[in-house]
Amino acid sequence: MALRRFFVGGNWKMNGNKESLEELITTLNTASLHDETEVVCAAPSIYLDFARSSLDPRIGVAAQNCYKVAKGAFTGEISPSMIKDCGVDWVILGHSERRHVFGEGDELIGQKVAHALESDLGVIACIGEKLEEREAGTTEEVVYAQTQVIAENVKDWGKVVLAYEPVWAIGTGKTASPEQAQEVHEKLRAWLRANVSDDVADSVRIIYGGSVTGANCKELASQGDVDGFLVGGASLKPEFVDIINARA
Ligand code: PGA
Question: EC (predicted)?
Answer without folding.
Answer: 5.3.1.1
